[in-house]
Every structure is written in C-alpha cells, then in structure tokens.
Design brief:
60s Ribosomal Protein L30, Chain: A; 4-stranded mixed sheet; 42% helix; globular
C-alpha cells in the first residue's frame, strides 16, 4: 500500500516542477496598486521570468495560480500585461495549482516540456 501511495504521489508531480526548473513567486503585495508598463517591468519576478523566456527559444511561461475566481482573474491580468509588453500569448500557459491565495508562481517551461493539465 505504501508503494502504491508513493507511486501515485510521484505521478502527481507536474513535469514543469522538475528539479532545476526556474520559477519565481509574485505576491499579491507586489501586484497590488495601480499598474503601468514601467511598474510591471519593475516587478523583479516578472522581469526575471521574461528575461529567462527571452534567452530560451521556444520556452514558455507557466503562470500557476490557486484557482477560484480571484486566482483566475489575477493570472489573466498577468497574462494580459505580459502580452501587452510583447510576450507572445502562445508562450504563456495559465494553470491551477497548489499555491497560497496571495501568490502566483511563474515557471519557465523549457522546450519539450508540456504544461500539466
């Protein structure tokens, strides 16, 4: 039984969370307040994620949110700002995951790693 539980737990780990996969946390505190393109680019997690994306051809950014209306709304806002600042929408994936309500995790999905459903 323990082996079965361990196997199920390992299968539940998404490919995008593989060790060594770059990721950044954006907090609600960092995100709150009025938005401008300059302010978005000043957010260290977003700037680092976009720089990593720019230096990795065919990679994508996965925006992991906690789900629910607030989480989805926040992730869609992030996606919209990234697209408005020049990141192709085809290189952004939104996904619900186990993350705190006041956080969004942004992962760099290298080429060949499919986003988890």
């Amino acid at each position: 039984m323990k082996r079965l539980l361990l196997l199920l737990a390992l299968l539940a780990i998404p490919a995008s969370a593989a060790p060594g996969t770059p990721s950044w946390i954006l907090t609600l505190g960092e995100w709150s307040g009025p938005k401008t393109g300059e302010r978005i680019l000043d957010m260290k997690p977003l700037r680092a994620a976009v720089q990593a994306l720019d230096s990795t051809p065919k990679a994508r950014l996965e925006v992991m949110h906690n789900g629910g209306e607030g989480g989805v709304f926040w992730a869609v806002q992030i996606e919209g700002w990234l697209v408005s600042l020049g990141v192709p929408g085809s290189r952004i994936v939104l996904r619900t995951g186990a993350i705190k309500l006041d956080r969004v995790r942004i992962l760099l999905l290298p080429p060949g790693i499919a986003p988890t459903p």
